[in-house]
Amino acid sequence: MHLNRHLAALSALLIGAGALAGTAWTSEGSRVVSYTCPGGEQFTVEYLDGHVRLRTGAGIFALTGEKTAGGGKYSDGYTLLSASGDQATLERPGLPDSQACRATGKTSL
């Protein structure tokens, strides 16, 4: 009985921490776009001034770059994100390129 109360308290704590972590990675005034690729991969990009935060299944990555007339290119020296309109391409060493990824959701914070 005592163990069940501890497990319930731990579960509540983990759920609360997860809810906070889900909101902590965004900044006020940023634009968040979720992308889905033809191969099934999904990733989310938070567009900030001069850089982006890329969230994939492998983690969160800070990429710097520049906006161009047709979109933007962002990199950390290993990962390259090219985005234009509602499409994006993601290139990473050792993994196949994710091309023709389409925006599936946008949020302005």
UniProtKB/TrEMBL annotation:
Cleaved signal peptide residues: 1-21
Region described as Disordered: spans on this chain: 89-109
UniProt-listed SUPFAM superfamilies: YdhA-like (SSF141488)
Domain C-type lysozyme inhibitor, first and last residues per copy: 35-94
Keywords: Lipoprotein, Membrane, Palmitate, Signal
Entry superkingdom: Bacteria
Pfam families recorded: MliC (PF09864)
InterPro entries: MliC, MliC_sf
UniProt protein name: MliC family protein
